[in-house]
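Supplementary Methods, section 5.1.

A reviewer requested that the exact input to the structure prediction be made available. We therefore reproduce it here, unchanged from the version used in the analyses.
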Amino acid sequence: MFYPYRRYVLKLIQVFMKTAYFTPLLFLTLILLSACKNKVVMSVSGSVDYLGEANISVSEQPLHYKYSPKKIYSVTHKENGAFKIDIPISVNRKLIFTIDDQSLSLIADPNDKLNLTISRASFPLDTDFNSIHKDDYEAYKNYLSETDGLDKLIEKEMNNFKAGLDNSALELSNKKINIAEKHLMGTHFEHLILKTKGELLVNKIKSVEYRLGKTGFEADLERTRILEQAKTDDFFTLESLESQRAGIRDVTHYYARTFGIYDSVNNVYGKDLAEYDIKRLAYEELNEKRLEVIEYIEDRKAKAYAKMFLVAERIGEVELSKAEPSYRSYLEEYAEFTEYTEFLTYFYDEIKSVSPGEPAKSFALKDKEGNTHTLEDYKGKYVLLDFWAGWCQPCLDEFPVMRDIYNDFSREDFEIIGISTEIDKDVWRADIEKFENPWPQLYGGNGFDQETFKAYKGGGIPFYILIDPDGNIARYNDIRATFNLREVLNELIDE
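The structure derived from this sequence is encoded cell-by-cell as follows.
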C-alpha cells in the first residue's frame, strides 16, 4: 500500500538532493518522516452481548508466530459490553481481534471505521461487521462457517493415517482449500487460501513419515514428488510463506522426520523419547534435512524469511554456543533484510538473558488458597520451575517420574514449583485436584501471555527451568524427568 503523502516526501528528497544545501542530517530527517508515516490508526468499535471475565484485545500479527515481541492492545469495555479502540497499525501487518483464546482476522485499513456486533456464545461465527469491506467480511464469515469443525476432523483423520488406518485426511485438506477458494478469492482474506495450501503440504509430508517401512513405499521418490509439486504450485514464494507463517517451519520439521532420525535415536536409547529430547540429541542431523527443503526456494528474500524461522528455532531449542554460528552466519549473509536480522538479534539477546549463569527471573504468584509465593522464598535449594497445563499431554506424561524424583530428594535440597499456563482459573483448580502433585502449584493466568512465562522466554510447554541455590539459572529448558533430571540433580547436589 502506498500512501500519497509518501509520494510527496520522496519528491522532496529528490529536490533537496539536487541542491547545494542538502545535508546528511536533512536527508535522515526526511527518511524518518517517511518511516513514521508507515504507522496509521484504525478505529475498531462494537459490542459484546455477554463478557463475564473475558479479556478482549486487538493485536498485530507478529513477524514470527512464537518468538517475536507481540503488540497487544487491551480493549476496555463498558458494563453493557460496548467498546471502542484506535489501533496504530503497520501497513505490512495483519490485525487479530481476540476474546480469550478465540480470534477473528481483521482487515487493516486506516480508512475503515470497523464496528463489530458479537454474540459471545457463537463467537467468532456469528459476528456482524459494519465496514467499508462488508462484502469481504461476509465472505470471510461464510468461510468460517463452512470450515467450522473441519480442522478437528482433519486432525482425527491424520491420526488414523498415523495408525495405518483408512482415512480421508488429504481429501479433507483439499476440501478446505476448495472452500477457501470459493469464498475468499479476490477478497482481503485471500492469504488464507495460501495458508490452507500450506496446511495440505504439511499433511502430505507427515503422511510420508507415517508410511515409512511399508512394503513397496519409496520415501525418497515421494518426498521429491511432493516438494517439486509444491514448487510448481508457488508454495515457496514470499507471499505464500508469509501467509503460512509457521508453515515453512512445520514443513521442514516433518520433512526431517521422514528420514527415520527419530526412530534411530529411540533405538540407541532403548526407549521412546519425547520429541523435545530427540531434537537436542539429533539436532545437527535434523537441521541438515531441514535445509534440503530451503533449497527449493529461489527468491532471495523468501529464502531469507524461511531461514529466519530455522535459525530462530535453533536459538530457542539448543544451547546458544551451538546456535551462535548459524545466527552469526545469517546476520552476515542476509544483512540487507533488516527486519529479519533485527528480530533474530532481539531474540538471541532475549535467550542470552535467561541462559545458565544468569540471575533467575523473580515472580510473585498465588496458590489455590491465595497465598503468595516468590522465588526468594525458595533460595538455598535447587528449584525446578514446571510450566504446564492440563491440556498438554507431554506435560502430564512427565508427572509420574517427577513424583518419584520429588520423593527421592530432600526438600532442603530440591523443590518443584508448578506454574500453570491455563487461562481459566477454575480449570486450573480442577486440574491440580485431579493430578494431586505434591509440590506447590501456582497460577499465572493469561495462558502463554502470563508474565513469568514471558520473562523466561517460553515458547511452548512443557517448559522447565532449573534454578540453583544462589538464585541463578542452572539449566534452561534442557532437562526432563523422563530423560535426565535425576542424573542432573545427582551431579549438582553431590557437588
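DSSP finds 19 helices and 15 strands in the chain. These observations are discussed further in the main text.
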